[in-house]
Amino acid sequence: MFSTAIESQLFETPRHRTHYLSAGPVDGPLLIFVHGWPELSRSWRHQLPAFAALGFRVVAPDLRGYGQSSVYSAHGDYAQSEVVADMLELIDGLGRERAVWIGHDWGSPTVWNLARLHPSRCAGVANLCVPYFVLENGLDAALALVDRTLYPEAEYPYGQWDYMKFYQENFARATAVFEADPYRTVKLLFRKGDPADADKPAFTSAVRRQGGWFGPLDAAPDYPRDNDVVTEEDLQIYAEALGRNGFFGPDSYYMNHGANTALVAGAPEALHMPVLFLHARYDFVCETVESRLADPMRERCAALTEHIIDSGHWMAQERPAAVNAALARWLVTALPAYWPAP
């Protein structure tokens, strides 16, 4: 059994500072876990010790704008070109040529971009909830795949992605409402999936119509904590980091669709390394089980493995054992040479 002790570390270059969590033998095969909005490296708290115990070197960075990593003041500082550059600097700083990259939410476009633009740095890639060839291609790519049976264009012109348009039109309000009470914001957001929400428009499809994420309210309503996703300690850590840094950086990830589209324009589309995609059965914003959202990925990944997890969007936190099992099964079958030596 390898040590599962998690260390907090900083890596700095003249352009950026990345805080990251690490565990496992320093010479073990490298797994890098990339979080999404509005999370932290801590979002992978259930994965890091499990894979460290197997002999992998595991690393989970705080992305720019989050935690103890650098915070910036312009929307353009949160374009995918910058985030991808951060990840390349990090793997260089770790002294490694390649890693298996695992992403979720906004971490998924970053991992997809690494696979597409820098395939030599990827032994394999795995993503949770957000499929390839959608969000990293910009908002228009996501709109083209909206289920117009569930979201008639006249009523829901932006489908479930309406909230992304709200950021573009009302960025200051979106950010101010989240910042009014970061603790209540994350307590409301981090909730398990509800099967009863199937076949209904996602709540994100009406954000613009109702005047904000929480309608006319100027702060998140006070909902009970969902203990199936986060503990009180988890919430306090998320809230402290978001209260300190603010939501400008996290929300700015949604303000770079044009720049993100330009980044991949003309780049090869096919991915040839092993790819794992984990569908969340009860994620009804990024709904990939019944919709066409994952079809572009299937057309472009030569070695794709898919698996459905009975969870909502916060899959790695809601169903950690199922996620860990799916990742381990894929690693040992699709990348057997990458498995740690006894």
Q: In sequence order, what are the helices and strands, one letter per element? A: EEEHEHEHEHHHHHHHEHEHH
Spatial order of the strands forming the largest sheet: 1-2-4-3-5-6-7-8
Helical residues, percent: 25-40%
Query: Would you tell me which CATH topology applies?
Result: Rossmann fold
**How far apart lie the N and C ends?**
10 Å
CATH superfamily: Alpha/Beta hydrolase fold, catalytic domain
From the 3D coordinates, which CATH architecture would you assign? Answer: 3-Layer(aba) Sandwich
Q: DSSP helix count? A: 13
Low-confidence stretches: none
CATH C-level name: Alpha Beta
Overall 3D form: globular
Strand content: 5-15%
Which assembly state applies to the chains in this document?
A: single chain
Rg over CA atoms: 19 Å
How many structural units, i.e. domains? 1
Give the SSE map:
Elements: E1 7-12, E2 17-23, E3 30-34, H1 48-53, E4 57-61, H2 80-93, E5 99-104, H3 107-117, E6 122-128, H4 139-143, H5 162-180, H6 182-189, H7 207-210, H8 232-245, H9 248-252, H10 257-264, E7 275-280, H11 295-300, E8 304-309, H12 315-318, H13 320-334
Parallel strand pairs: 3-4, 3-5, 5-6, 6-7, 7-8
Antiparallel strand pairs: 1-2, 2-4
Question: What does it look like?
Answer:
An eight-stranded mixed beta sheet has the order 1-2-4-3-5-6-7-8, sandwiched between helices. The protein has helices spanning 48-53, 80-93, 107-117, 139-143, 162-180, 182-189, 207-210, 232-245, 248-252, 257-264, 295-300, 315-318, 320-334; strands spanning 7-12, 17-23, 30-34, 57-61, 99-104, 122-128, 275-280, 304-309. The longest helix has 19 residues, at 162-180. With 342 residues, the chain is an alpha/beta fold. The chain has one domain (7-338): Rossmann fold. Helix content is 35%, strand content 14%. The protein has 13 helices and eight strands. The mean pLDDT is 97. It is globular, with a radius of gyration of 19 Å.
